[in-house]
Amino acid sequence: MLHQIKGLHHVTSLASDARENNVFFTNVLGLRRVKKTVNFDAPDVYHLYYGDAAGSPGTVMTYFPFPDAARGRRGVGEVGRTSFAIPTGSSQAWLDRLASFDVAAIATDTRFGEKRVLFDGPDGDQFALVERDDERDPWTGNGVSEAMGIRGFHSADMRLKDGDASAELLGFMGYEKGDTDGDVTRFIVPGGNAANVIDIEVAPSATHAGQGAGSVHHIAFAVENRARQLEVREALLDTGYQVTPVIDRDYFWAIYFRTPGGVLFEVATNEPGFDRDEDTAHLGEALKLPSQHEHLRTRLESLLQPIED
Asked: Residues 6 or more apart from 126 whose CB is under 8 A from it?
């Protein structure tokens, strides 16, 4: 069993419109845009990051907004819902706020004794706000008060046809099996960061998901540094997983592998962080380009959709 993985690092999804995506996460959910950069493999597409004041591991939702991308199809073999932690007692304030922005599919329920506010993003992406005591500081610069501000991730739901092999993988990664609520089983990293929960939802009769706008592309798990990441990579290779070499993503180093259930996992380092090329007070303001794409700046600035007035 691994001990290096501490919980979620970030979640990366696909979108169809950069401006709409930015408005939703900054104006509606009140998160901070901590980086405005581009997709390493498709530099004419943004890579937008939203999180707390510093973009701390376990708080960052990221997006590739491919213009006019077709909407994804929900099903098994994907992360079906991403959940954020909110303060206990703040659900009603969020229900009122989401309704004031005409957010889609607003509902409430309770899972494992925790009250949740459910809703959809602009591309049908599924989210939840989960009430719990959480000592992380929220970003409050976008009209959301500290009393209701999002603290970071609570968990991610993996929707699978058969959860046994993925449950075994999570156990190898250091997650412990917790309670079961209907078709959902909870897995938790003891002593991990505050985003240390994965829920596996088994839906044996569901069809396979089709990736598109609103789909989660991958979820990333946090390790402290590159040394711990290499230990994880070696252990995964020894277990038979096909793992990529370490890739420099400017703000973290990453490795990727596909799970038995079809979900793409990343293991990302907490170092160096989003302040490596911007002062913390001005994160996410300027367009930052990977060094290999800097020579394309003039062209890219003319191609990329403005995301602010």
From this structure: 74, 80, 81, 82, 105, 118, 120
CB–CB of 87/131 below 8 Å?
yes
pLDDT means per 10 residues, the chain with 309 residues, are 97 98 98 98 98 98 97 98 98 98 98 98 98 96 93 98 97 98 97 97 97 98 98 98 98 98 98 97 97 97 90
CA distances from 114 to 128, 175, 261 (A): 11, 20, 26
Residue 269 amino acid letter: T
Beta carbons within 10 angstroms of residue 183's beta carbon = 12
CATH homologous superfamily of 8-303 equals 2,3-Dihydroxybiphenyl 1,2-Dioxygenase, domain 1 (3.10.180.10)
| Segments in the chain forming alpha helices (H) | 18-23, 91-100, 164-172, 226-239, 297-303
Can you give 168-189 as a three-state secondary structure string? HHHHHCCCEEEEEECCEEEEEC
Alpha-carbon distance of 85 to 111, in angstroms, equals 13
Sequence letter at residue 302: S
Do 64 and 15 touch, CB atoms closer than 8 A? Answer: yes
Asked if the bond preceding 272 is cis, omega within 30° of 0, the reply is yes
Tokens coding 86: 């909110």
Among 84, 62, 57, 34, smallest CA distance to 224 is for: 57
Rg for the chain (alpha carbons), in Å? 18
Tokens of 249: 């993503």
Q: From start to end of the chain, where are the E strands?
A: 8-15, 32-38, 46-51, 60-65, 78-86, 104-111, 114-120, 126-131, 152-160, 176-181, 184-188, 197-202, 216-223, 247-248, 252-258, 264-272
- Quick one: pLDDT at residue 143? 86
Q: What residue spans define the domains of the chain? A: 8-303
